[in-house]
C-alpha cells in the first residue's frame, strides 16, 4: 500500500516524470504562494474525485463514464474556487482561471480513469495523496527557483504584520527577470527534467 503513496512523489511524479499538469506548472509558478495554493487545490480535488469515482465505479454506465468523472471533478473544483474567493481573495486573483481549469487537468482525469476506476477506496486515497503531494512539491520547486532568481524574493502567506515577502539580499536588487517570464518557466522545467533524467540514468547505471 505504501507504494501507491510514494510513486506519485518520486517514481511517477506528475510534473518531472510523466509530464502531466504542465500548464499550471508554467503559468502559476511565478511565486511560491501561488504554487502552494494551486497544489492544495489539486490535492483536495484529487482526493475527493478519486474517492467518489472509486465508490461509484460499479454504478456509472460505460457510455457516460468520462462525462460523469468531469461532473464529479467539477463539483470539487467549484468548492475550491468558491473557498479561495471567500477566504483567500488575493490568491484567487493570482491564480485566476487556472483554478477552474483544474477540471480538465490531465492529472485529475487521468487518475480517475487509470486508477480510481479500477481500485479500492483506500488505494485511491493513497494514490490521490501521493500524486497531489508530488505535484505540489514539483510546482513549488519550480516556483521557488523562478521567484528567487527572477525576483529575488520568496512569497508565502502573510501572517499578522508579516507581509509574506522575504527578500533575498543581493538578488532582490538585481534579479534575472527573464526567469520570471514565460521563457524562464520553460528553461527551469527543461533543466529540472534533464536533472531528474540524469539521476535516473545514474541509478540505472549503478544497478547494472
Give an overview of the whole structure.
The protein is mainly α and 208 residues long. It has one domain. Helices cover 63% and strands 3% of the residues. The protein is built from eight helices and two strands; from the N terminus they run H-H-H-H-H-H-H-E-E-H. The chain has a two-stranded antiparallel ribbon with strand order 1-2. Helix 4 (65-87) crosses helix 5 (89-95). It starts with a helix and ends with a helix.
Give me some keywords for this one.
3% strand; two-stranded antiparallel sheet; mainly alpha; single chain; 208 residues
Put simply, the count of helices is 8
Number of strands: 2
The ordered H/E elements are HHHHHHHEEH
Largest sheet: 2 strands, antiparallel
List the helices and strands and how they pair.
Elements: H1 2-6, H2 22-27, H3 32-56, H4 65-87, H5 89-95, H6 106-114, H7 121-151, E1 153-155, E2 165-167, H8 182-207
Antiparallel strand pairs: 1-2
Quick rundown:
The protein has helices at 2-6, 22-27, 32-56, 65-87, 89-95, 106-114, 121-151, 182-207, and strands at residues 153-155, 165-167. With 208 residues, the chain is an all-alpha fold.
